[in-house]
Design a protein that fits this description.
By secondary structure, this protein is α+β, with helices and mostly antiparallel strands. Helix content is about 45%, strand content about 15%. The chain is built from 11 helices and 10 strands. It has helices at about 5-20, 25-30, 40-50, 70-80, 105-115, 230-265, 280-305, 310-340, 350-355, 370-380, 385, and strands at about 120-125, 140-145, 145-155, 165-170, 180-185, 190-195, 210-220, 225, 270, 270-275. The strands form 2 sheets. Strands 1, 2, 3, 4, 5, 6, 7 and 8 form an 8-stranded mixed β-sheet that branches. A two-stranded antiparallel ribbon has the order 9-10. The longest helix has about 35 residues, at about 230-265. It is globular and about 80 Å long. It binds flavin-adenine dinucleotide. Flavin-adenine dinucleotide (FAD) binds next to helix 10.
């Protein structure tokens, strides 16, 4: 099915087998706030690298997987079958960075990230700047050979595990005053301080603290690209990550659909399996139908990118894939809880965990409303036929 090559199928099978190894650990991780014993987690990260599932999105000449977009999707789809972010060990370092990084930045950040020796986090969102990234208030001020960074960032995912941050700020002065720039900040650094680590709906080992940057001094060599380039990097990352979010949502929906089908075929009520009751059968059928639609959309978007699709078209299609797949997965999780009923409300049940975990897929990397705005704008500018 889907016309996958032998190489694609091999990578997919490796990712699937790895996900199947992680699944039995989910319920324990859930009860431990998302944590696994450190040696177990380290073992998973090592295994993901050995299996060629880590850094699939990074160039082969720098030690990355050099995989096609479709192959990256196939891996992330399988990782999406696992709850509690246990699949995040198959990490995707910043694929937008090698093309704009200096040789110094390649050696200091890119190669170690590909080797699994360094990990990034993104400090972009602020209390008053989320969907409207352009409104952020953090500043970068040139000071001799350095920049001084100031600002408070929200939801900094993986700050507790990362050892460098991308920090996006508005230039305080100079010829590009008011424009955005992106910086690399080593962690820990003087002036970087966690203000608060709020609890979120999901239980995962990667936290999302609110982090203050106060007069954080970074050398000018830590500016990425040129002054004024900041927003373009954010857009490139969004495009990639939206497609990967969609892929993981497809994986989650596949797992849920499989689990609820097994349960519905086995649970007897009134002498018949509940799958034979029309209202339950409809929940199964609708879930698989929507999963098929989402997967087809995600694979075709990936193939288009591999064929060299125009970047604006790819941007619109990645938004459509993320919008549809995240909303589809939310509906499937809701139905799965309903099919499992009382069991589906227990934390040890996969449907309960996904019901909470998948909610954020409609929020991060651009909310559903923002995706719709992007799609509609592209439709008006290029005509609907250009996108679909
Ligand atoms: C668990 C989690 C992890 C995250 N990780 C990171 C991270 O690592 N780094 C980082 O920088 N950020 C991160 N974020 C932030 C995330 O990207 C933002 O939450 C998201 O972009 C939405 O911004 P906001 O929360 O400020 O909502 P707002 O922008 O305040 O939106 C509020 C509401 O208004 C709607 N809205 C806003 N603009 C429009 C519009 N133009 N048209 C229609 N409706 C609109 C939104 O859809 C939403 O319904 C994370 C968030 C969460 C929840």
């Amino acid at each position: 099915m889907y016309g996958l090559s032998a190489e694609d199928l091999d990578l997919q099978a490796r990712a699937r087998a790895f996900a199947d190894e992680l699944i039995p650990l989910e319920a324990g991780a859930e009860l431990a706030g998302g944590e696994l014993p450190p040696d177990v987690a380290a073992g998973h990260a090592k295994r993901a690298r050995e299996l060629g599932l880590h850094a699939t999105n990074m160039p082969a000449d720098l030690g990355g997987g050099g995989c096609s977009t479709l192959q990256q999707v196939l891996v992330q789809e399988q990782m999406g079958r696992v709850t509690n972010a246990l699949g995040w060990v198959a990490a995707t370092p910043p694929s937008w960075l090698p093309g704009v990084a200096t040789p110094y930045q390649i050696e200091r950040y890119v190669r170690p990230a590909i080797a699994g020796e360094r990990e990034e986090c993104y400090a972009i969102t602020e209390e008053g700047a989320g969907s409207d990234v352009a409104a952020l208030q953090a500043t970068a001020r040139r000071d001799g050979e350095d920049y001084l960074l100031n600002g408070t960032k929200w939801h900094v995912t993986s700050f507790n595990t990362a050892d460098y941050a991308f920090f996006q700020a508005r230039l305080a002065d100079g010829p590009h005053a008011g424009e955005h720039a992106m910086f690399l900040v080593d962690l820990p650094s003087p002036g970087v301080r966690v203000l608060r680590t709020p609890a979120y709906s999901h239980s995962i080992s990667h936290h999302h603290p609110i982090v203050a940057f106060t007069d954080v001094r970074v050398p000018a060599a830590h500016l990425i690209g040129a002054e004024g380039d900041g927003m373009s990097f954010a857009y490139e990352w969004f495009r990639f990550e939206r497609l990967m979010v969609a892929a993981r949502c497809v994986g989650a929906a596949e797992r849920l659909t499989a689990e609820m089908t097994t349960f519905a075929a086995g649970r007897q009520v009134g002498g018949r399996p509940i799958s034979e009751y029309g209202t339950v059968a409809a929940m199964l059928a609708d879930s698989l139908t929507e999963l098929f639609a989402a997967r087809s959309m995600v694979y075709e978007t990936a193939r288009g990118i591999d064929r060299g699709a125009d970047v604006k078209i790819a941007h619109g299609q990645c938004s459509m894939a993320k919008l549809y797949a995240s909303e589809m997965a939310g509906r499937v999780a809701d139905r799965a809880v309903q099919v499992f009923a009382g069991r589906g409300y227990m934390r040890e049940n996969v449907a309960e965990r996904f019901f909470r975990e998948l909610r954020v897929e409609r929020i991060w990397e651009g909310t559903s409303e923002v995706q719709r705005a992007i799609i509609a704008a592209q439709m008006v500018k290029r005509g609907p036929a250009a996108l679909a």
